Target: Tetratricopeptide repeat protein
Amino acid sequence: MRRTPHTPMRRLVPALALLASLAGPPALAQYRPPPMSESQRLVKDGETAQVSASAASASGDKKEADEKYRKALALFEQALAAEPGSVAAAAGVGSAANALQDWARTVDRVKPVQAANASELSLAYPLGVALFKLRRFPEAVPLLEQVAGADQAEHLIVHYYLASYYLFAQQGDAAVTRLQKYLTLRPAKLAGNDFQVHELLGRAHVLRRDGVAARASFTQAQAGRPESPTVQQGLASVLELEGKLGEARTLLEGVTTRFPQVAEPKEKLARLYLASGEVPRAEAQAVAMVKLGASPSAYLLLGDVRLAQKQAPAAEEAYRKVLELQPGLVLGQMAVGKALQAQGRHEEAIQFLEAAVRSGASSVELWASLGSVNRRAGRFQRAVEVHRRVVEMVPRQALGWMLLGADHFATGQWDQAIEDYGNALQVEPTHAGAKQWLARALAHRARDRGGAGRADDAVRDLRRAFDLDRSALMARRLTAALMETRGYADARKVMEQGATLPGATWREQLLLGYARLGAGDAQAALEAFGRAGKQTEEPDQQAEASVGAALAEVELGQVDAAVQRLTEVGPSRTAASVAQANLPRVLVRRALARLETGDVEGADRDLDAVDKLGTGKRTDLTKLVLFARGLTRAEGGRHAEASAALKKALTPAQPWAWPNTRALAEAFVLYKKGQVAASRKQLAAASKKPMPGQPRWLASLTGALHRREASLAYASGNMKGAEKALKAALTAEPEDVLLQHNQACVDWRKGKSSEALATWRRLEPAVSVASLNLGIDAQERRHEPAEAVDAWRRYLASGPGPRQAQVREWKERLQSLHGLAEPSGAAPTGATAEETTP
Model:
């Protein structure tokens, strides 16, 4: 055999070694963690002891669990002492101390470390829980809210705690949010306790005033469980929210009967009795609660009952019993302060509450009560200081701002009070009390501004107040301010709303009448005054309404009725003063109206009555009376006296007179004197700048001047001048029958007899003097005595006139001379005719 060649052994071994090294796994270096510090070792041992404690607690061995927790706490504290800034050690101390309910230890050990590690949830959680258990809510709530924001299942209880606090703080929306988050995160194995959460949800919805959601939550809490007294109490709160107080009481009365040993429904029922003023029934429930057990809530209720019975010393005794049972209870401390205040012992109340604060008690309610009692004792600066503390404690609530507003309101510092109540509304825009008190503060500031001559500022304040408080009272205040600034149209709009608001009375109708009167609607004003008189049975108030109606009647031209009302006022002093202030003006108004109708004697009587009443210090009215006197003197032909009176009345110029009134008055007097040219000159000067409403009067006086000029020319035999003046008058008033008649008289004098007779016959039914003139023509020109007698007979039958006697004499003389008998059936008349011929 041939021998196969092979690689030498010394070369194969290294190759195999290399292959093996390439084919096998890589060789790793061994890792060893760095050695633990003493603090870390103690933390690890503490965590081991804590696990054992949790296991013992789960098995029901409370003693073993306590021992293990104490061992864990000791280890964690040693670790924290070794490394004071250790987060793990501080977190261990917090969890172990909380398990042992040693809340103060947690706060003492964990708080410094948490301050240096503000974002560390492992510290915020135990510290927040401990502070919450110690009822240090202002410190606890921010920490618990920080933890809740992480939405971690191991922090589930935080949502429950926060919801409980929000319920205590009356923050229904926030409580609902936390409770719903709790139901979302809670493990299925805890679902059996959801009834408690639903009951709290119901209470939160009651705070939100959502009756439907509250009823649903309480019903869900009650489902599948024996009847719960506290849930039934919640349903009673829903009924109360719905305004069904009778049903709520009936429900609670049934609950207290079925569960006589349960205190909470008794307390709720007693509170309802107190609210409705049924103090004896509330007392029975309070006494029953005390018999069930000497609890703070029972004595607190009993104290409230005694206070409602005006038994402040007995109330104080009950409240002090509350503090004996639960020292430091804020509600008890405040209640004792309230009882001391009720006895007028403000200083003692202040000392008591200040002592409570010095002892460490700190709550919003305590500080609020302390500030309020300082205000009632007249210590306003201290009240402000304390209530600013309340604002700092609850910056997102209106409470502190409301209390500050009350402090400033009490001292009349309206600007500050308005600012405070405005801040309260910014925090809680729907706060009813803030709106109401802001409106009142604005009304008070408006009153001061109005008194200082700042009427426009007062109106602005009252407009804002009325927007906040739509009440009849606020409408009345705004209307009065608007009328003060002569804003009658706005005043009318406001009071037409105010008169329909709840609580509106006869007084709103009275003010509405004056607003309408100022706005120029006298008829609507008269109707409002009439309603005011019908809405009251008090004679004084009816008299005030009657005086207002009189002023409306004046504007409607019913001056006689107005004068009668103002002279027969009634028993009201207010109405008498209004009548006394207005009667002289109304009499002057009637005097001027009588002058327009030619009743000079009646106008003089009214002016004499004004002189007897007097015009007081009203210079403008005195001048108006003198002006009216001047007009009556002019009408009576006493022209010199008229001119003097008118000049004195209009010197200096009066606010009730137009700038050209003096020129118009002079033109009128000259017209009455028959100085037509001079009158026309004055009238031309006054007509250069006529005022509103004057053109018609100017045209009337111009026509009167034409008539007077025609009359004077006719009387002097100047037919050409008379005709010219009459044509000018007819140009302005072509349908005037008297002017047409007088033009016919001129035509007759000028020999145009046929035209004159045609005009007189046409006008005879409207102008009685036409009959007279027809008779004159028949007698003097045509020599027809029978026709003349017949014409004059028609004249005598037409009515009274100044020439009746003369015409009757003419008629009878012609009848005697010519043997003309009276027609059968004709009766003699004793009337006189009025002369209308120029």
